[in-house]
Write a structure and sequence with these properties.
This protein is of the alpha/beta class. The chain is built from eight helices and twelve strands. Strand 7, helix 3 and strand 8 form a beta-alpha-beta unit. The chain is globular.
Length: about 300
């Protein structure tokens, strides 16, 4: 059964009311264009701590809950699924989760994926770990007969996560990013890190612009999964939201720094090239070769011609 996905981007900020307005508007747009599921970026409703705002000190959790209820209600009215990037408060003084709520077309939260690999040092004093608590579970759910999964931004650096989702029979991945709101001085530093002599040899001038889309294409092709990649469009955005077919081909892309909704169709019956199909499951079980091995002295001797 086909699944129509709306991959969204807008300029996420610290203003909860503005974020909510964009989310609701894009849900309406997606529904009008036939989408079954609407996918938003990391921190799309709450904003992204450390980038959109300095810390969660004084954060209005009550307002975030009210805004979240508006999204749930509209999902129920429109009869669409929603993958909503947000933040989830914990008890006491514990840092919240950086999360994506999985909302079904009845307006119910059926699961919540909490970012497992938050960037930062081992002491939890820098990067995301200064603001967020990492999660501990995979999120697998079914939409129109297709098993789906979720990851968030820095999780892309860990191919083991994609492999685990594949082991659980996932066909479609929703990967929410926040590679945006880059200030000019930071952007210059990021470009310098790559090296100007290499800019023309790559698909971008910053590591996020180079590595994130490339890794998504590799993940799609190696595990044969479809991937929706949502990002914030807040200037400067490192790259625009895009969609990757299960053979690693990008089938749609929005414009960088521009608000938009990308519509893509997942058709599991579409014949797509998959060179690893015959041996992928065996590789995931730890058998790291194709065909049949032989017992031969010339095979075992690795130091002679």
């Amino acid at each position: 059964m086909k699944l129509i996905v709306a991959t969204c981007q807008f300029p996420v900020s610290e203003a909860l009311a503005a974020n909510t307005w964009y989310v609701l508007q894009q849900m309406h747009q997606a529904k009008k264009r036939g989408a079954h599921v609407v996918h938003f970026c990391e921190g799309s409703l709450s904003g992204y701590a450390g980038t959109n705002f300095d810390s969660f000190q004084g954060f209005d959790w009550a307002l975030l809950k009210d805004c979240s209820q508006e999204v749930l209600q509209l999902a129920r009215e429109l009869r669409v699924w929603v993958l909503l990037g947000s933040s989830h408060s914990l008890s006491g003084r514990r840092r919240p989760h950086n999360c994506v709520y999985v909302i079904n077309d009845n307006g119910e939260i059926v699961d919540r994926y909490d970012k497992r690999f938050c960037a930062g040092d081992r002491g939890g004093k820098t990067g995301e770990l200064a603001h967020y608590t990492p999660g501990d579970h995979f999120s697998v759910f079914t939409i129109r007969g297709l098993r789906c999964g979720v990851l968030i931004c820095h999780d892309y650096r860990y191919p083991e996560l994609y492999r685990e989702y594949k082991k659980q029979g996932v066909h479609v991945m929703f990967h929410s990013y926040h590679a945006a709101n880059i200030k000019p001085e930071r952007l210059r530093a990021m470009r310098k890190q790559v090296g100007s002599e290499f800019h023309g040899l790559n698909s971008g001038t910053t590591l996020p612009e180079i590595t994130m889309p490339a890794t998504m294409q590799a993940a799609a092709a190696s595990s044969h999964v479809w991937i929706s990649c949502a990002n914030s469009s807040s200037r400067e955005s490192c790259w625009p939201a895009f969609f990757v077919r299960a053979d690693g081909v990008i089938t749609g892309r929005l414009r960088r720094n521009r608000t938009g909704v990308l519509i893509s169709t997942v058709d599991p019956r579409q014949p797509l090239y998959d060179s690893t199909n015959a041996w992928r499951e065996r590789a995931m079980r730890g058998v790291f070769h194709s065909g049949r091995l032989v017992r031969d002295s010339r095979s075992q001797n690795h130091t002679e011609l």
